[in-house]
């Protein structure tokens, strides 16, 4: 109680809205950013280490499951973590997710074969599902919506740092310490986050009378798993029209329909459907899905174009994404500051939708003669659009629900973005691969068809071994593939702009609801209430 009084007094001295935050809140925010970094950095680092991992453990045929197992577990557990935080307390759920993530990281580092690694990565993914949700929900508890925009730049900065630094860090760790440290590196960072959150964050514990909605969890998990497997396997391991893919689509649709029906009957539903009565929450879910679709598709195929057509190295292709990520960081920061100062936000999703369409269309114009400077300008336009979207969607979604639903609102928005990324990678990938194979066969005949028979995406070593004719044909094919993929992205982004036009600009609250929902680390509104 003494801590509460001290922080309330400190809040009074440091002024009204927009004033300086208590040191304890700033320390908690630092810990949250570390946890967010863990969730985003992991896949980037591990992706770089995968060739070395396969070389030591074998099991090349199961390679994709190292990523798929992690993604499935993360997507399926995300809404569950959000609901657990709402029912039993945000702090306990968040700390549990960190501990589970660290256990999975330690076990993954000790894996002796590919089967163990896949299983331990799934454990790691279960923890990761609670990291992003916990960060967003705790910030939603501590920072009033009107002020929350100031911290969006911080989150965008962490995201940009993970995307740029992940491959560099992964390569350095693998080359100097061995691939196992790609997982062990999470441990010291996680311990720091645990210590800071445990010592400084004091949110109230909750004791919900209702039981966990186990049927809802099961149906949602089956539905999400089927969707992710369809987007992962479709067009690669299985043809889109194959019996296996059709079965998965049927299972996924049936499970999700059953889930929606059950949520209308459950005492404490995993995803309360009443949230979707809010027009803004529904629109933010749509916008989040499309943003994930576009963003992850772009970050996957831009480096491939830069390496295959523009001759960039694997390391440099990551650095060449800086125009997009830098523009995203700047715009996200400016959007957050303007939102905090004015309380207005509708202009940002509208501007973001228009810029995303323009950026994706410009990227679709790239060919074998496009310079790095020109492609950098096109990427910057896309980055400006995504920067307008990234955190504003979460802010508006959280502002559209009651405090008791903050966790599930955060997890639902995160889940839609995750599913969007799965669909984006799958659909843009299918279009890209089909176009590359077609152009290769057209330009290089039987030789071109043989080159891309197994995969339309060649690494640098395979590309260097090709005859000059086939290599030139492949560069034209990749240009054609990226043209089709980004043109599709531009078409899909139109949905974002249309949704943004229907957003109702509800004033952002200057404070959170009752002080008891915040606890010892009190935001400014606690001082005002007292």
TrEMBL record:
<keyword id="KW-0812">Transmembrane</keyword>
<feature type="transmembrane region" description="Helical">
    <location>
        <begin position="62"/>
        <end position="81"/>
    </location>
</feature>
<feature type="transmembrane region" description="Helical">
    <location>
        <begin position="283"/>
        <end position="305"/>
    </location>
</feature>
<keyword id="KW-0472">Membrane</keyword>
<comment type="similarity">
    <text>Belongs to the major facilitator superfamily. TCR/Tet family.</text>
</comment>
<protein>
    <submittedName>
        <fullName>Transporter</fullName>
    </submittedName>
</protein>
<feature type="transmembrane region" description="Helical">
    <location>
        <begin position="215"/>
        <end position="233"/>
    </location>
</feature>
<feature type="transmembrane region" description="Helical">
    <location>
        <begin position="317"/>
        <end position="335"/>
    </location>
</feature>
<feature type="transmembrane region" description="Helical">
    <location>
        <begin position="484"/>
        <end position="503"/>
    </location>
</feature>
<dbReference type="InterPro" id="IPR036259">
    <property type="entry name" value="MFS_trans_sf"/>
</dbReference>
<dbReference type="InterPro" id="IPR004638">
    <property type="entry name" value="EmrB-like"/>
</dbReference>
<dbReference type="Pfam" id="PF07690">
    <property type="entry name" value="MFS_1"/>
</dbReference>
<keyword id="KW-0813">Transport</keyword>
<feature type="transmembrane region" description="Helical">
    <location>
        <begin position="245"/>
        <end position="262"/>
    </location>
</feature>
<feature type="transmembrane region" description="Helical">
    <location>
        <begin position="181"/>
        <end position="203"/>
    </location>
</feature>
<feature type="transmembrane region" description="Helical">
    <location>
        <begin position="377"/>
        <end position="396"/>
    </location>
</feature>
<dbReference type="InterPro" id="IPR011701">
    <property type="entry name" value="MFS"/>
</dbReference>
<feature type="transmembrane region" description="Helical">
    <location>
        <begin position="118"/>
        <end position="139"/>
    </location>
</feature>
<keyword id="KW-1003">Cell membrane</keyword>
<feature type="transmembrane region" description="Helical">
    <location>
        <begin position="347"/>
        <end position="365"/>
    </location>
</feature>
<feature type="domain" description="Major facilitator superfamily (MFS) profile">
    <location>
        <begin position="28"/>
        <end position="508"/>
    </location>
</feature>
<dbReference type="GO" id="GO:0005886">
    <property type="term" value="C:plasma membrane"/>
</dbReference>
<feature type="transmembrane region" description="Helical">
    <location>
        <begin position="27"/>
        <end position="50"/>
    </location>
</feature>
<keyword id="KW-1133">Transmembrane helix</keyword>
<dbReference type="InterPro" id="IPR020846">
    <property type="entry name" value="MFS_dom"/>
</dbReference>
<feature type="transmembrane region" description="Helical">
    <location>
        <begin position="93"/>
        <end position="112"/>
    </location>
</feature>
<feature type="transmembrane region" description="Helical">
    <location>
        <begin position="151"/>
        <end position="169"/>
    </location>
</feature>
<dbReference type="GO" id="GO:0022857">
    <property type="term" value="F:transmembrane transporter activity"/>
</dbReference>
């Amino acid at each position: 109680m003494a801590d509460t009084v001290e922080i309330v007094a400190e809040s009074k001295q440091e002024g009204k809205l927009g004033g300086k935050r208590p040191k304890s809140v700033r320390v908690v925010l630092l810990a949250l950013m570390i946890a967010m970094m863990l969730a985003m950095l992991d896949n980037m680092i591990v992706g770089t280490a995968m060739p070395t991992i396969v070389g030591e453990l074998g099991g090349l045929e199961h390679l994709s499951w190292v990523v798929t197992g992690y993604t499935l577990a993360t997507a399926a557990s995300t809404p569950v973590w959000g609901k657990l935080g709402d029912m039993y307390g945000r702090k306990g759920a968040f700390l549990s997710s960190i501990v589970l993530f660290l256990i999975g990281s330690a076990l993954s580092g000790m894996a002796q074969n590919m089967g163990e690694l896949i299983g331990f990565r799934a454990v790691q993914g279960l923890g990761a599902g609670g990291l992003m949700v916990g960060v967003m929900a705790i910030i939603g508890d501590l920072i009033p919506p009107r002020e929350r925009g100031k911290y969006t730049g911080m989150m965008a900065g962490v995201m940009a740092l993970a995307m740029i630094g992940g491959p560099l860090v992964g390569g350095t760790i693998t080359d100097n310490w061995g691939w196992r440290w790609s997982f062990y590196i999470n441990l010291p960072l996680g311990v720091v986050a645990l210590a800071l959150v445990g010592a400084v964050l004091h949110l109230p514990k909750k004791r919900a009378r209702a039981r966990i909605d186990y049927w809802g969890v099961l149906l949602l998990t089956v539905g999400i798993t089927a969707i992710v497997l369809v987007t992962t396997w479709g067009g690669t391991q299985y043809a889109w029209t194959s019996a296996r893919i059709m079965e998965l689509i049927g299972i996924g649709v049936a499970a999700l329909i059953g889930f929606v029906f059950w949520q209308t009957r459950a005492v404490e539903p995993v995803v309360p459907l009443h949230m979707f009565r809010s027009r803004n929450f529904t629109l933010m879910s749509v916008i989040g899905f499309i943003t994930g679709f576009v963003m992850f598709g772009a970050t996957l195929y831009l480096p491939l174009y830069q390496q295959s057509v523009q001759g960039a190295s694997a390391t440099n292709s990551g650095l060449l994404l800086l125009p997009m990520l830098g523009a995203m960081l700047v715009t996200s920061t400016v959007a957050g500051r303007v939102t905090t100062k004015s309380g207005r936000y509708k202009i940002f999703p509208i501007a973001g939708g228009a810029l995303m369409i323009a950026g994706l269309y410009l990227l679709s114009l790239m060919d074998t003669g496009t310079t790095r400077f020109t492609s950098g300008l096109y990427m910057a336009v896309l980055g400006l659009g995504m920067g307008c979207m990234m955190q504003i969607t979460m802010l508006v979604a959280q502002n559209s629900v009651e405090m008791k639903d903050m966790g599930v609102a955060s997890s639902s928005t995160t889940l839609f973005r995750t599913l969007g990324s799965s669909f984006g990678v799958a659909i843009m990938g299918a279009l890209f691969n089909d176009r590359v194979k077609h152009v290769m066969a057209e330009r290089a005949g039987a030789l071109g068809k043989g080159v891309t028979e197994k995969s339309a995406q060649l690494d640098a070593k395979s590309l260097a071994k090709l005859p000059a004719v086939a290599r030139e044909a492949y560069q034209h094919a990749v240009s054609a593939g990226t043209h089709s993929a980004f043109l599709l992205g531009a078409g899909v982004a139109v949905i974002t702009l249309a949704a943004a036009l229907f957003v109702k600009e509800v004033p952002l609250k200057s404070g959170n609801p009752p002080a008891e929902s915040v606890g010892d680390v009190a935001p400014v509104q606690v001082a005002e209430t007292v």
